[in-house]
Amino acid sequence: MTITCLVIDDEPVARKGIAGYVEQVPFLSLAGTCKGALEANEMLHEHQVDLLFLDIQMPDLTGTEFVRSLEHPPAVIFTTAYRDYAIEGFELNALDYLVKPISFQRFLKAANKAKHHFEMQRQPLPKPPTADPGYFFIKSDGQFIKIKLDDVLFFESEKDYVFIYTPLKRYMTLLSLKQLESELPPDKFLRVHRSFIVSLDKIELMDGNMLIIKDKRIPVSRSLQDTIFNTLIAGRLWKRDV
To answer: 135-232, what's its fold?
Structure first.
């Protein structure tokens, strides 16, 4: 990768020194040098610049004032003889802050930091997660069985096995409820007891600490009763106004 740089400093010796450093680093390319912010502004309108090596104390506009004046400023490494501006520089998201006189070793460290910054920016965005297919497979009796999430009434754990209840059949597989809980969509399924995960859409009745699904009475842990009530009933309870 190549990072195109612009050096801005009102001191000729400083401009020449930093420009010389830029030319020694293989992944940096020098677009030009400027003696002040106004000249630099013109350069930015004419050239694509990735990175500014920008002095802070300049006669027309300070480096920080110049950055604030830009609608879409390039990345910035501030260069200055004064340490007092460091906090202001980093408030502008500067990649680094070099105090004059600048050694090549310190310059190279800042350049490598800029390289890492641009490499991270150019990494492809992670792909969005694929949509939930709406089904899963289990292994039971040596077979791989497809079960639709919409068909599941509830899951019941017994020792090392889980029973999966659907309207037509019960399946048994070697799984744990903890594993299932991490895989199931939380807006559709809820663990209500150490031995049960239920489909929220399939709950027909709540009676104290019991849920009813297809005539099956499922216990609810005391600590989860309020959660169940708030999830299922609160905001949906029709009652006569007093």
So the answer is: OB fold (Dihydrolipoamide Acetyltransferase, E2P) (2.40.50)
